[in-house]
Task: inverse folding
């Protein structure tokens, strides 16, 4: 007697998981095309990542004359750190194309 494994619950769940994965990928691709904030994030990401590399140098330059530059750089650095942490937190959940 042969057992047909193609109808097993395990195989059905694998097919269901693949269908869900394909559906989520299609929705994400559609959202990527229509979302302004997502497109802006993709454009600004290289700039933010490049600026993140030089924060130590900018910190040193600001310390030399902190009158006004410390206030400006403090706000910019806060936004950079928050955006970097948010990106690091959500990156594992974003499907790669």
Result:
């Amino acid at each position: 007697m042969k057992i047909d494994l193609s109808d097993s619950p395990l195989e059905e769940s694998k097919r269901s998981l693949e269908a869900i994965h394909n559906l989520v990928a299609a929705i994400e691709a559609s959202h990527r095309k229509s979302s302004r904030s997502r497109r802006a994030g993709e454009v600004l990401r290289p700039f933010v990542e490049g600026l993140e590399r030089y924060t130590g140098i900018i910190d040193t330059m600001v310390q030399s004359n902190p009158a006004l530059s410390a206030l400006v750089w403090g706000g910019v650095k806060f936004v950079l750190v928050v955006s970097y942490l948010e990106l690091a937190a959500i990156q594992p959940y974003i499907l790669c194309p």
Q: What stands out?
A: The helical segments are 9-34, 36-53, 55-64, 69-90. Residues 8-93 form one domain.
